[in-house]
Queue: 2 jobs
Job 1
Amino acid sequence: MPGKQAKTLSTDHIDDLLFFAERSRHPLRNRLIVLLSVKAGLRAAEIAKLSWDMVLDPSGAVGGTLAVQDQIAKKRSGRTIPIHADLRQALVKARQLCNGRGPVVRSERGGALTPMTIVVWFNRAYKQLGFEGCSSHSGRRTFITRAARAVHKAGGSLRDVQLLAGHRSIQTTQRYIDGDSDTQRKLIAMI
């Protein structure tokens, strides 16, 4: 897909992807992969390198935020992301199965997955679901687009979306945001 942006996902697409993850060999791990992408906007490399010390609070419980550290973020753009309720629920379940150390998303042998493994997992899932033009970046684009559309309801601005995405430039964030033809039609009708 050189030169093209990954497509964003609809609510139905996300539901299908979560259903696919549920029916897989590692349902909780794969649900975490999907939710870290669509509910936290993490890149494949960030999902692979996320460790429990970035998720847990000082008492060892799942905290209220993901602290994406500079060493795992692209261009060392670490950031803090509030944890969505669905993602929190999956993290709490995953925490019960481990000692709270090491990678959040683990291979069958217990070690970290590679970023390429995350990319391949998404590619296989999208292919089996028949989703054209989607990639491991689709969840991230969906997260950023949804955040941009809803930020005014939370009393925020595009700067807040930029910070959640970990972009240095607001222009980069703007390139991620998908337009909505229904909204454009409504807007034209209002003019």
Job 2
Amino acid sequence: MSGTDCMFCKIVGGQIPAEIVREAERTISIRDINPQAPTHVLVITREHYPDAASVGQADSGIMDEIAREAHEVAKAEGVAASGYRLVFNTGGGVGQTVFHVHGHVLGGRGMEWPPG
């Protein structure tokens, strides 16, 4: 899928509405429309990369920025002190449904591992 067909590229470009939580130079953070936790925010790159592996191969420093923004989101959402999870799905077999790299910031409830 090219960036022009990508739902997240369209959100970044303002063609599809979303609830924006934060904006930074290289990322935009939006509320997930199907939240899996009380806090569920997606940190999306403005530039199109299909998944976390492709971002790592690009070696552009964007993963650092995603992690920084995820922490800023967690602070703003009030979950930084209690803890939060930052999740990347890479590939359809593990649940990636939008093939544009994005980190899921999840918090606001217990998420012990392994699940009990």
